[in-house]
Amino acid sequence: MNKLFQRLKISQKLNLIGYVGVFGLIISSISVWFILNNVHELNKNIQNYASIEKSLWSIRSNYNAINRDLLLLYVLDPNVDEQLTKSNETFEHYLKTIKKLEEDKQKLLEEGSNDTDLKPLINKINTTIQSYTSFVTENVIKIKNVSTSDSLGSVECKDILFNKFEPLVEQLRIDREALFQILKSKIEKANEDFETANRTANILVAALTIFVIIIVYVLSSMVSKNISNRLKYVSDTLDKVSGGDLPEVKTFDDKDEIGVMSHSFTNLVLELNKLKQFTVAVGNGNYESDIEVFKNKGEISNALTEMKANLKIASDLKNIQNYTSEGLAKFSNILRNTVDEDYYDNILSNLVKYLKANQGGLFIIEEKNREKYLNLAASYAYDKKKFLEKTLLIGEGLAGQCVLEKETIILTEVPNHYVNITSGLGQATPSAIVIVPLKINNEVVGVIELASFNEFQQYEIEFIEKVAENIASAIISAKTNQRTKELLEISQQQTEEMRAQEEEMRQNLEEMQATQEEMERKEREMHSIIDEVQKRENELREYILELQSQKEELENKLNKI
């Protein structure tokens, strides 16, 4: 509406006021008609709900009457003349009542057929009524004709009434109560909607009157405000700009003289706002900002562009210094870690990540049989085919040549077969490779090879060379520590061997001493045995001499005889 006013002449704006008023009256009249039509529909629904409620009460009254008739038929004895008449009258009343119940069931089905919320419950209660009437019809004659003298029949009828018939009555009561509760809530909702619709109709009629009265005033005032607002905006904005503030700009599409003046002034404020954004962006270090001030034309724009370029150079130098100092401090901490099996992998992975490279390898010079070679101590995302063998001879390949030349080698045109950077989605050739010798005091102890999809900047290469010196120092220190450790282990091993030999000699001396003591003991035993033998020998000799003496004496006696 505001844009339309801005494009029209004053006479056209006044005519538009009348058109809008008439259009508003038409829309309001249509709205009232729809509301009244809705009120009529709500009234029909209320009447239908009232009819359904009436049918439910009638169903309740009828099945209660049937229940009473059945109990009465059970109590009355058909064999007693006085009770037979009462039994027949009760049966006639039962037939009329069950007919009314069937009529109420059919009426209820017709009344609720158009309500999707009530129809399932109505169908359910009709099914229950059907089961109820079928059961009653099947058993009413049996109940009517049973005599009190017929004990077996009385028991059967009692079981029918109180055990089989009672659940159907209870289910019918539950279904009717459920339908009645929903119907009650729908009646309450319909009454509320009816009252709301009546109130809305009354309010809308009153609003139409008020609308017709005020629309002419409101629309006509827009014409005068349209002009006064633009003049006030220009005046307030000039005051703020002169005070050093930049207000929010407004755009005017008016084609009159005031509109042209407002448009030119708005453009000036917009350019001043761009100048403010430009200075804020440059002050925050955003030297790549593409904000155009005065369309990048004129002396002011050229001066701002030159200032931004000079500040960018100074900022880049500062960022490079921070990058180098932070990186050296980071790797100084890493190199101070304990040398273990992950030591070189940790150095290389951190270096690759810090440089945002994609691949890397760290080679250390080893010596075997007085022949030096490069050994792959750590790798990061290397192709397995390229480094299937983890050793290189000095002078072999670019890494071996880097050892001989003791200078950094940079490749920006990498051959396709040289190396590939592989991921789960495929592989590609890097855009740049840098190979830096690990040297300190002109002594090379290894090589670092890094590959990246982006070319290495000069400050990054200088940073790698500085880190390489620290790594070389760490490698020399690690080798020295390792050699010291190995010598210490050899010394400890020799000490242990000497201790073992000393222990063995001590054990041998103890065994020899024990053997000597055993020999001395056995020698003493031999002397004792010899003494005993000699003693026995002497005794034997004395015995032999005695025997000989006795023999001679005996021979003498024989000779005498």
Structure characterization notes:
- The chain has 561 residues and is an alpha+beta fold.
- It is built from ten helices and eight strands.
- The strands form two sheets. It has a six-stranded antiparallel sheet with strand order 3-2-1-8-7-4. The chain has a two-stranded antiparallel sheet with strand order 5-6.
- β1 and β2 (371-380) form a beta hairpin.
- The longest helix is centred in the C-terminal third of the chain and has 103 residues, at 458-560.
- The protein is flat and about 180 Å long.
Query: What is the CA-based Rg, rounded?
Result: 60 Å
Q: Percentage of helical residues?
A: over 70%
Mean pLDDT: 75
Return the string of H and E elements: HHHHHHHHEEEHEEEEEH
Low-confidence stretches: 384-388
Number of strands: 8
Structural class: alpha+beta
The total of helices stands at: 10
State the separation between the terminal residues, measured CA to CA. Answer: 191 Å
Give me the side-by-side strand order of the main sheet: 3-2-1-8-7-4
- Percentage beta strand: 5-15%
The global form is flat
Q: Tell me about the biggest sheet?
A: 6 strands, antiparallel
